[in-house]
Predict the structure of Phage tail protein.
Amino acid sequence: MPVSVSNLTQGPGVLYAGVMGATEPTDATTAPATGASGYTDVGGTNDGVQLSIKQTYKELEVDQVVDIPGRRITKREMTLKTNLAEPTLENLAISLNSAASAITTAGTGANATKSFEPPNEGSATQPIYRPLVFDGFAPGAKTDGTAPARRILVRRALSTDDVSFAYKKDDQTVFSVTFSAHYVSASIKAFKVIDQVLA
């Protein structure tokens, strides 16, 4: 198969975090901010956005043959991993599966403050799932440099890894975060990939 240069992709993308129940944006060319309400651009990311789909298969066995006769999938995990380069309290709340209401403001003018406190009562055991939208580039670039859009929808995500951030003299502070996709329903899949097709 010959190499199709137009299918090679590279470049940054934009990550949006939503609230459950927000209208799902399906047009890969429209930003969620204008295509659907309830989504927030999390701002800059550092070191890219890595999408992984891990599939676990169980081998079938029979006594009569030495070869593996087949496999059945027993688990699928889709994760989205990135470093949020804007370490705001809003992004910290998203990273820790907390509601925006966990951020409070006090004072005015030069004495104004904003703070975040995680829940520690019974509600802390009920994490806040949220939809994610990642917009990047799809294969199929035109000779004039126009690149099609790719949209990845994670319909019910939860931050599942440790959230770490460091303050260093010679390095940037970021929130390191991993979101995992979760089951939605029999008719609504956990994630979807949409590619724009250029005419």
